[in-house]
Amino acid sequence: MRKQTENFQAETKELLNLMVHSIYTNKEIFLRELISNGSDAIDKLKFKALTDTDLTKDLDEFKINIKIDKENNKLIIEDTGIGMTFDEVNENIGTIAKSGSKAFIEKFKEAKENEQLDIIGQFGVGFYSAFMVANEITLFTKSPYSDVTIKWSSKGDGTYEIEEVENLDDLKRGTRIILSMNEDSKEFLEDYTIRMIVKKHSNSIKYPIYLGEEKLNNETPIWKKDKKDITEEEYNEFYKNTFFDFEDPLLHFHIKVQGSLEYTALIYVPKRTPMDFYTRDYKRGLQLYTKNVFIMDKAESLIPEYFSFMKGLVDTDNLSLNISREILQQDNELTKISKNIEKKIETELKKLLKDEREKYITMWEAFGRTIKFGVQEMYGINKEKLQDLLIFKSSYKDEYTTLKEYVERMKEDQKEIYYVSGENEELIKSLPKVKVLKDKGFEVLFLTDRIDEFTLKTLMNYSEKQFKSINDADFNHTEDEKEKETRENLEKENKSLLDKVKELLGGRVEEARLNGNLGSGAVGLASKGEISLEMEKTLAEIPGNEGMKAKKIFELNPNHPLFEKIKNTTDEEELKDLLYVLYNQSLLVEGFNLENPIEFSEKLNKLITK
Ligand code: ADP
Fold first, then answer.
1. Closest CA to 462 of 401, 519, 515
2. How many angstroms from the chain centroid is the CA of residue 517?
3. Which of 130-134, 206-210, 215-219, 352-356 has the lowest mean pLDDT?
4. What is the mean pLDDT of residues 438-466?
5. How far does the centroid of ligand 1 lie from the alpha carbon of residue 586, in Å?
6. Which residue CA neighbors atom 16 of ligand 1 most closely?
7. Which residues contact 461 (CB under 8 A, 6 or more apart)?
8. Is residue 138 lining ligand 1, measured as CB closer than 6 Å?
9. What is the pTM (predicted TM-score) of this model?
10. Residue 58: what pLDDT?
11. What is the pLDDT of residue 321?
12. Domains in the chain, ordered, with CATH?
């Protein structure tokens, strides 16, 4: 029989050290972690038993037992799950494979001392959290794939012992964890403390948890219960336990469908963007249960990419139990279910948008980007479904608006939906063009996310109204007849001046023209063609696309005193400097960088000191 003393892997040592010396006050979470490991182990066993019934032939009980041995100062937690072989113990308990724990250590090190405690609660550090309450842990485990039982023990210092031992009569299968409690953790040897902790953190575990003879939890899965019998708190606890969040979710949808298609889904939206959400590590998907058996953790096909931020589960009795994970992807029944779920979520979201705008906005600010990407996906294949979920800030009230609400407010003679892009809301609000439009009673959508304009471009129109950037070359829709006439006359009058301006700007702009709607601004910038000003900025950030530039139009405000100055500057060199400075000014206002800050400063200084 094998027996070894091993060193913990460096990272594990670090984590252990943190746990042993932890002054975290909420130590009780160790029990939640051990119970949930036990529950996972039973899940694994039941899943494997679907195709290999031999696995459960010695023992067909699935439960978690807690025992208190006050005399010997021990707390024992055992499950009848899959257990572990010799190698598995080495792999799973000796090392930290889980990326979550690595992230934990990194976060912990970065955090300031007063924040560190919080982090322990946030992550849930699994098995090792038991070292907060125990000065020695002994584990016995029997896997149906091994003939012998494995004993593992450690004092939480740098090493652990692992050996093969004779099978125990009272451990036919599963894992027994014996904690020798440390001086400060005697409270966990009291029945009522254990009862309270299990109720608080593990009530929704789907296998019975016993303390001696007494069953502590209510293992009817929460999603199987009647909605009216479930409290908000139960929904929240279940979420935190199942999806490893330390915070309550923002909201949940509990969907029960009956008829030719039958399933139950419980879907949550987290309150915040998970740290790994925009990384490759993030995996979308819903948990899948069939006839109460846990089949898999992240069934991707159950939820579309644009709702990837949602967490939850689906339970259906209509699947064959003899199913492999590969076949799942093509299962007809599942495809129908996922289509149906998608529709239900859309309906729920629209309801939320209408009835609980605040919550919707919280969700939008955390995850709205995912939905916008969804609109853009595959040239807009999903745009019809998603367009009414989009919200944008607008000049109407400094609030979010849907496209539908915008269109309802549109003036009778307004043919298009106006938008403007910019770095942030404050900057956009101060743009002279926006102010002028607002004064004239036109509403403008504020696009502050780089991908917004691409999203609108994919939509092309909403309710038969095209989208129009107020920076677009042919945007003059808000001019009334009189204004138009005045401008055209002025342009005729100043034709040679405008040609000169274009020439002196030396290839920087396609055209120079007048715009009487620039408010207090002396100059403005517009674009024509496919690439807008905002798109140029976005494209510049994508390697290989730096050369893609908007065709720019330089606009002069005929009502600004500087226009007179331009007109009256006869010295060509001076006019050239003046235009250079003004053009660069318009770049700045539109959120571009100066072409050359030093040259700009020199020319500006020259003009000032004149
Ligand atoms: P996590 O459970 O989050 O993966 P842990 O540190 O708690 O992290 O556990 C590490 C691994 O050890 C688990 O993934 C599992 O493979 C194994 N393990 C832990 N507890 C048990 C148990 N009671 N039965 C079987 N395997 C277990």
1. 401
2. 40
3. 215-219
4. 93
5. 60
6. 92
7. 417, 467
8. no
9. 0.73
10. 77
11. 55
12. 3-219 (3.30.565.10), 223-358 (3.30.230.80), 390-470 (3.40.50.11260), 475-610 (1.20.120.790)
